[in-house]
TrEMBL record, chain A:
Swiss-Prot/TrEMBL keywords: ATP-binding, Nucleotide-binding, Transport
Name by which UniProt lists this protein: ABC-type quaternary amine transporter
InterPro entries cross-referenced by the UniProt entry: AAA+_ATPase, ABC_transporter-like_ATP-bd, ABC_transporter-like_CS, CBS_dom_sf, P-loop_NTPase
Family the UniProt entry places it in: Belongs to the ABC transporter superfamily.
Organism: Flexivirga caeni
UniProtKB/TrEMBL annotation, chain B:
Official protein name in the record: ABC transporter permease
Keyword Transmembrane helix (UniProt): yes
Keywords annotated in UniProt: Membrane, Transmembrane, Transmembrane helix, Transport
Primary location: membrane
Keyword Transmembrane attributed: yes
Listed PANTHER family: GLYCINE BETAINE/L-PROLINE TRANSPORT SYSTEM PERMEASE PROTEIN PROW, POSSIBLE OSMOPROTECTANT (GLYCINE BETAINE_CARNITINE_CHOLINE_L-PROLINE) TRANSPORT INTEGRAL MEMBRANE PROTEIN ABC TRANSPORTER PROZ
Membrane-topology annotation of the record: Multi-pass membrane protein
Native species: Flexivirga caeni
Domain of life: Bacteria
A GO CC term assigned to this protein in UniProt: plasma membrane
Transmembrane segments: 31-51, 58-84, 90-109, 157-181, 193-213
Compartments reported by the entry: Cell membrane; Membrane
Residue ranges constituting the ABC transmembrane type-1 domain according to the UniProt record: 25-210
Length: 380, 244
């Protein structure tokens, strides 16, 4: 657990970067600091590993004040990932990743073995280790940056906009892999971003900061979407809050209708015989692959003639995915599968909406009704 | 004229003995090598420190201003001061070395300074953030990354020193400058031209050796980074040029 207690940072010019910041980043969870530029989120992050020293207040990791430890030694025990990866161009990828183990005194060969393991973990197996950083794409460099931070297996990781310098497709991929890694590793992570969607996607709890270095609200994503504490937070969290909140609502048991399916290669006659209305679902070994209109086919069904517009939702996934499956399906019947992607049945939009109606929203915290100041939802 | 110079150069008799070309080449290399070495020992740590700390940048400016001093004039001033204080050859050799050291320092300082100060700030930030001490950041990240610029400073210093070491002959020290000074005195232009060719050839050879050393010493990642940039520039140029 990382604890901020009344932390203040005033720069030499008299500018207040962080103003009386108090919060906790719980062990094994991702705490995202988010806010517009100039809100002090990066300054706050960098005070944890003493890259910046606070003007007053205390920061502790597992109840040990960071000020009581030698700065270099403190940092070797904390993973650190930054925006442009900051790889050392003079070292091969494997030696970049081996940096902290070597600083901690590990023999070079052992550190390199460990480095290769971690590179595999972040999806850079084999010969990537022997490349130079300049031979990698931005996304690959960022993966190396994460591997380098993980190499010494630190319990705490600090990540400063690690995915913001890569293109949106790669960013999404890196975020998904990051969440998968975190499920395995369970690090205590403080993550800085200016992107509220990234914060909502990655954060177990989110600290929204406002210009001047004040904490505006600390809450989990669903609560933040349901109950932004003021106009600033509401504006920052953005539009479509109700719809986006469905991302965090678990799908209850939906009334699934059995859906007849045909395999690929079905003839037009067979397809027309199997259809109940204009659309027919095609499945490959139980996995839905797309919709066809039997009226309009003249040959055996092949992948190229499938309608791909409909999304597929897992029965155990978020309500947003179930609703989207129904809304995007050309037959208006949303395809629901189990976790292995095997078809369970279909559901219509109004049935998903009924399920949504019956779902509890995050209840507003008493303290947030008449707020006296920055509020904490960390205990939720 | 070219044929005459060529004949002068390949005449075996010119290469032998205490005043032969071989001896002069060795002397020339000796003065130049010693000067660059001393200059490097002084300038590289200072340049690297200024680049690392980001302080005392005025030293670079002052060193650059030294480039404006004419070497020959400086040589006479320094020699006059030393001639009454030192005995024998040293009275002329020491002033020569001092002048050449002063000449070699600005490019070495600038190379080390800009090499270290231009290290990617993200790499430097990551280095500190992972728990490197100042010394570790300097020796493990900044200096290796600065090597290409340190080498270009070194090569530029070596070229200037080899070219300028000829002036040593004007205060009766040896080296290839002898052929220029003596040739001028005797109106032997063949000898002068031969001496000039030798200086140029020596400069080229030394530069070649340093370039080879650079390839050996500079980490491959820095080479590929530069050649990748060059390739990108080249392809940008070809794309920009109108077709047909």
């Amino acid at each position: 657990m990382i604890r901020f207690e009344q932390v203040v940072k005033i720069y030499a010019g008299g500018q207040t970067a962080v103003d009386d910041l108090t919060f906790e980043a719980p062990t094994g969870q991702i705490t995202v600091l988010v806010g517009p530029s100039g809100c002090g989120k990066t300054t706050s992050l960098r005070m944890i590993n003493r890259m910046i020293e606070p003007t007053s207040g205390h920061i502790s990791i597992d109840d040990e004040d960071v000020q009581s430890v030698n700065a270099a030694r403190l940092r070797r025990g904390i993973g650190y990932v930054i925006q442009n990866a900051g790889l050392f161009p003079n070292k091969r990828v494997v030696d970049n990743v081996a940096t902290v183990p070597i600083l901690l005194g590990a023999p070079r060969s052992q550190a390199r073995t460990r480095a290769r393991e971690v590179l595999e973990l972040v999806g850079l197996p084999g010969d990537f280790a022997d490349r130079w950083p300049s031979q990698l794409s931005g996304g690959q460099q960022q993966r190396v940056g994460v591997a380098r931070a993980l190499a010494a297996d630190p319990p705490v990781m600090l990540m400063d906009e690690p995915f913001s310098a890569v293109d949106p497709v790669v960013r999404e991929q890196l975020q998904d892999e990051f969440l998968r890694l975190q499920r395995e590793l369970g690090k205590t992570i403080v993550f800085v971003t200016h992107d509220i969607d990234e914060a909502l996607k990655l954060g177990d709890q989110i600290a929204v900061m406002r210009v001047g270095g004040k904490l505006a609200q600390l809450a989990d994503p669903a609560y933040l979407l349901a109950h932004p504490i003021d106009d600033f937070v509401a504006g920052f969290v953005g539009r479509d809050r109700g719809y986006r909140a469905l991302t965090f609502a678990q799908t209850p048991a939906l009334p699934l209708a059995a859906e007849p399916t045909v395999p690929l290669g079905t003839t037009p006659q067979e397809a027309r015989a199997a259809t109940r209305d204009g659309w027919l679902l095609v499945a490959d070994h139980g996995r839905p692959v797309g919709w066809v209109e039997p009226e309009h086919i003249t040959a055996a069904i092949e992948p190229a003639m499938l309608h791909r517009g409909g999304t597929v939702a897992r029965a155990t996934g978020p309500l947003r995915a179930a609703l989207d499956a129904a809304l995007s399906s050309p037959s208006r019947r949303g395809v629901i599968t189990d976790d292995d992607g095997i078809l369970l049945g279909t559901v219509r939009a109004h049935q998903v909406l009924e399920a949504i109606e019956a779902t509890d929203r995050p209840e507003v915290d008493e303290a947030d009704i008449a707020p006296a100041g920055p509020t904490s939802r960390a205990d939720r | 004229m070219i044929a005459q110079v060529w004949r002068w150069l390949v005449d075996g008799a010119h290469w032998q003995g205490g005043t032969g070309i071989a001896q002069r080449l060795l002397e020339h290399l000796e003065y130049s090598g010693m000067s660059v070495l001393i200059a490097a020992i002084i300038a590289l740590p200072i340049g690297a420190f200024i680049g690392h700390a980001g302080r005392a940048k005025w030293i670079i400016a002052v060193a650059n201003a030294f480039r404006a001093i004419p070497s020959l004039g400086l040589l006479f001033v320094v020699a006059m001061w030393f001639v009454s204080r030192l005995q024998g050859d040293a009275a002329y050799l020491v002033p020569t070395i001092i002048v050449l050291v002063i000449l070699a320092m600005p490019p070495l300082l600038a190379g080390a300074y800009s090499g270290v100060s231009e290290v990617d700030p993200a790499a430097r930030d990551a280095a500190y953030g992972m728990g490197m001490t100042h010394r570790q950041v300097l020796t493990r990240v900044e200096l290796p990354c600065a090597l290409p610029l340190i080498f270009s400073g070194l090569r530029s210093a070596a070229l200037q020193v080899i070219a300028t070491a000829t002036i040593a002959a004007s205060i009766s020290v040896g080296g290839l400058g002898r052929y220029l000074i003596d040739g001028l005195a005797n109106s032997d232009y063949t000898e002068m031209a031969g001496g000039a060719v030798l200086v140029a050839a020596l400069a080229l050879v030394v530069d070649g050796v340093l370039a080879a050393l650079q390839r050996l010493v500079v980490p491959g990642g820095l080479r590929t980074a530069r050649s990748a940039r060059r390739r990108r520039r080249a392809s940008a140029v070809t794309q920009a040029s109108p077709t047909g």
